[in-house]
Amino acid sequence: MRPLRIAVVGGGWSGLSAAVEATTRGHAVTVYEMSPHWGGRARSVEAAGEAFDNGQHILIGAYRQTLRIMRTVGVDPAQAFERLPLRLVAPDGTGLRLPPGPAVPAFVRGVLSRRGWSVPDRLALLARASGWVVRGFRCDAQLTVAALTARWPRALQRDLVEPLCVAALNTPSASASATVFLRVMRDALFGGAGASDLLLPRAGLGALLPEPAVRWLGARGATLRAPARVESVDADGAAWRVDGEPFDAVVLASSAVEAARLARSAAPAWAARAEALRYEPIVTVYAHSDGTRLPESMLALESDMRSQPAQFVFDLGRLAGRPGLLAFVVSGAQPWLDRGIDEARDATLAQARRALSATLRGPLRPVRVLTEKRATFRCTPSLSRPGGRIASGLAAAGDYVDGPYPATLEGAVRSAVEAVRRLETPAS
Q: What is the DSSP secondary structure assignment for residue 140, as one 8-state letter?
């Protein structure tokens, strides 16, 4: 088809991915980003001369579109990530570790060898996972993850279901969609060799995609405008105008709130659906302990709403060459934010001192706390998410757009790729 002049509104992972995809397909691209920083909600933040990520994002081997876009802009995933088979390991060394190899045998071997679970618990997990496979990873759309696994042994709920649910959906199991959870489990645990592998970033989030994508786009003639807040997107016959500038098509890759504002006149029903989304925050507590090195780059922590906020801790000394720096992640953090960020920080540090008492080599002192209040949408049962098509020549991209995944980087990138291809279809 003829090359299009495409405007991309938003310079996060979805917006930059849309711009890269459109450029590779021969279109002329202009990207607008309201912030002076690229990367959206998955970026590096400078503070007191140091860089901190506003969340510790994990990729998995099943994130094929994200890895493809990274390679396109010159990022080598083998260098950018520590890649290892799925493991949910506690500070005491117990936990699930999948061996390398084909997905199903690896899962069976990992479950059977998991220390800390009774033999009946292990067999129960294999039986239930087999039931998922037989049912095609489908369930009643009204079910929550907690309801789906209500009859499971408590050890499996505590050590597997709850950490996987909050890591993948950033929504507590009591209110998280079982349908979406099963889709993630299908692609991760049964999506082929390496699909469930953890990819832990060795560098800041900015270096994984936003910064190289901006360089790549600039070298290929794309127009990059930041900071530049778009005030209006208006239909102009079969084309569109962005703040009065003509384009053949537009991708709204901003937040759902911003996209709703810009799309309201063209598609009020779509805008209303985007505005109706509710959100879950993520809090990251950075702390330093001289001489400390965790036994794993990432450990799973037992969490609860009483005194243990964090679900995971990352050793940034092992991952990023910053010895002694630990990042504690509190997903589904709204109850803790309601109690105050200072209480969330102090409770996290107290939890860390207890859970890591055998590992800490020096006093644990807080360094920085970062809060992303709208980190992800609340992934609840039967949630009505806005679609990728807004109007003819106007598409949406973002982790909130309707699709098989929850609010993940892969969901954001997939929606971006689909948005560009949708714009190439005249009927769209």
A: -
Chain centroid to Cα 27, Å, comes to 28
Q: Which of the 8 DSSP states describes residue 315?
A: E
With contact defined as beta carbons under 8 Å apart, do 156 and 124 qualify?
A: yes
- Tell me the C-alpha distance between 252 and 286, whole Å: 33
Count CB neighbours of 67 within 10 A.
20
Instruction: Please check whether residue 222 is in contact with residue 396, taking contact to mean a CB–CB distance below 8 angstroms.
Output: no
Other CB atoms within 10 Å distance of the CB of residue 385: 18
Residue tagged 């990207």 (tokens): 31
Give the burial class of 424: count Cβ atoms within 10 A of its Cβ; 0-12 exposed, 13-18 middle, 19 or more buried: middle
Amino acid found at 161: V
Q: Which tokens belong to 156?
A: 């499996």
Going through 208-268 in order, the beta strands assigned E by DSSP cover 223-225, 233-236, 239-242, 245-247, 249-252
The listed CATH number (3.40.50.1010, 3.90.1150.10, 3.50.50.60, 3.40.50.10860) that belongs to domain 5-61+204-277+383-423: 3.50.50.60
Cis bond leading into 246, ω under 30°?
no
The answer to whether 396 and 266 are in contact (CB under 8 A) is no
Structure-token match 């199903």, residue found: 104
Residue range(s) of every CATH 3.50.50.60 domain in the chain: 5-61+204-277+383-423
pLDDT the model gives residue 428: 46
pLDDT confidence of residue 49: 81
Query: Any idea how long the chain is?
Result: 428
Q: Which residues of the chain are modeled with pLDDT < 50? A: 428
DSSP code string of 316-354: HHHHHS-TTEEEEEEES-HHHHHH-HHHHHHHHHHHHHH
Cα angle 54, 58, 63; round to 5: 125
Q: How many CB atoms lie within 10 A of CB 250?
A: 32
**Pairing mode, if any, of strands 365-377 and 279-288?**
antiparallel
pLDDT on residue 427: 55
Tokens at 183, concatenated: 């889709």
Q: Per the structure block, which two tokens stand in for 264?
A: 């309201």
Q: pLDDT at position 426, please? A: 64
Sequence ranges of the chain with CATH classification 3.90.660.20: 279-377
Q: Which CATH number fits domain 279-377: 1.10.10.10, 3.90.660.20, 1.25.40.10, 3.90.770.10?
A: 3.90.660.20
